[in-house]
Write a structure and sequence with these properties.
This protein is an alpha/beta fold. The protein has a single domain (11-194), classed as Alpha-Beta Complex (Maf protein), CATH 3.90.950. The chain is 32% helix and 25% strand. The protein contains six helices and seven strands. It has helices spanning 18-25, 50-68, 94-104, 141-150, 177-181, 185-194, and strands at residues 11-13, 31-33, 74-83, 86-88, 108-119, 124-136, 170-174. Strands 1, 2, 3, 4, 5, 6 and 7 form a seven-stranded mixed beta sheet that branches. Helix 1 links the parallel strand 1 and strand 2 (31-33). The longest helix has 19 residues, at 50-68. The chain is elongated and about 55 Å long. 36% of the residues are buried. The model has no long low-confidence stretch (mean pLDDT 91).
Length: 199
């Protein structure tokens, strides 16, 4: 339910992602960035329920920041790539990235982004989980090596960014492009409007 009381304190983006920062800035609201170190994120994906796992991870990123700033709305998010029910997060290195991209080559996968908005003093805690299907064309070995030489893949789930060099691998998508970037614009706007943070 929407709370019509206008928020006076700035939003806190609990993410260091420059892409998420740009998306939030486009809403034209006051915000600053403060991300908590929650340790090894892989521990959230030890079970079979992928959707529950990414929701838990997004909540874990928001919780310590919300505890520190109980007056402020805190927005966190996490994005994962899933293929054959296997979670692909950020690569551990070049070889790991190569294996991921070879796995994705010529087939479809799903990108999940969970977005959590919390304001502790208002008792507000809502989360939206977006899911988009992405299909890659075939990637040949030479092209893959060039990509790994030049692309900024290290901080991206599945070792690619659809807004960067990785867009050349994408054949089509079914769903929200911004979910693949890392923060669904429509979903984020819906959460922000619930606490009167934007139009």
């Amino acid at each position: 339910m929407k709370n019509n009381t206008k928020i006076q304190t700035p939003l806190i983006l609990a993410s260091k992602s420059p892409r998420r920062k740009e998306i939030i800035a486009d809403f034209g609201i006051d915000f600053f960035v403060e991300a908590a170190d929650i340790g090894d994120e892989n521990r959230f994906f030890t079970g079979d329920d992928i959707e529950k796992s990414i929701i838990s991870l997004a909540r874990a990123k928001a919780a310590p920041v919300s505890e520190k700033y109980p007056e402020n709305p805190v927005l966190s998010a996490d994005t994962i790539v899933v293929v054959d029910n296997k979670v692909l997060q950020k690569p551990e290195g070049r070889e790991d990235a190569k294996i991921m991209l070879q796995t994705l080559s010529g087939r479809s996968h799903f990108v999940y982004t969970a977005i959590n908005l919390v304001c502790k003093n208002r008792g507000f805690d809502e989360i939206i989980l977006d899911k988009t299907e992405v299909r890659f064309r075939e990637i040949d070995e030479e092209e893959l090596e060039r990509y790994l030489d030049c692309a900024n893949y290290a901080d991206k789930a599945g070792s690619y960014g659809i807004q960067d060099e990785g867009k050349h691998f994408v054949e089509k998508i079914n769903g929200d492009y911004w979910t693949v970037v890392g923060l669904g614009v429509a979903a984020t706007g819906r959460l922000l409007r619930m606490i009167s943070l934007t139009f």
